[in-house]
Design a protein that fits this description.
Blueprint: H1 4-33, H2 37-63, H3 83-110, H4 114-144, H5 148-158
Helix pairs in contact: 1-2, 1-3, 2-5, 3-4, 4-5
Length: 165
């Protein structure tokens, strides 16, 4: 059984995952509105992944006999300076999510909650991938600089990303 303290922390993480989805949806909207449909599509896939993460945690709480609590989701920013700014904010956000996941793992370890610790390992691995992906895109955009042709090639490349449940 999961402790009430751990269930509360997991509920807060569900909220954070839904905020992530909302943030990436705002980023998708911004990119698409500015003619970068590939980046918009990449962010849309990211939105769906974050919802899937929230649902995975939601279902875990239910499996542990806890009823997930639906907390209010904060409004994300809606405007970004550039594609580079958008992905730098993505990287910063994913680093914060990593910090949160690590805190949950540390709490599970402290509580000797082996089931939750094992459950969270998937998210630890996922965050390594999330940060690596965002870093790669930041580096591509930095390399492109002000080259519009390079930006549109990157946009086209990012638009090929597909959602994998």
């Amino acid at each position: 059984m999961i402790s009430k303290k751990m269930a509360k922390a997991m509920n807060e993480q569900i909220n954070a995952e839904l905020y992530s989805a909302y943030l990436y949806l705002a980023m998708s909207s911004h990119a698409t509105a500015h003619g970068l449909k590939g980046i918009g599509s990449w962010m849309s896939v990211q939105t769906r992944e974050e919802v899937a993460h929230a649902m995975k945690q939601f279902n875990y709480l239910l499996s542990q006999g806890e009823q997930p609590e639906m907390l209010a989701v904060a409004q994300p920013p809606a405007n970004f300076k550039s594609p580079l700014d958008l992905f730098e904010q993505t990287l910063k956000h994913e680093q914060e999510v990593t910090r949160r996941i690590h805190n949950l793992v540390n709490q599970a370890i402290a509580e000797k909650d082996h089931a939750t610790q094992i459950f969270l390992q998937w998210f630890v691995t996922e965050q390594v991938e999330e940060e690596e992906s965002a870093t790669e895109i930041v580096n591509m955009l930095k390399a492109a600089g002000a080259d519009k042709v390079a930006l549109f090639m990157i946009d086209s490349h990012l638009g090929k990303r597909e959602f994998k449940a």
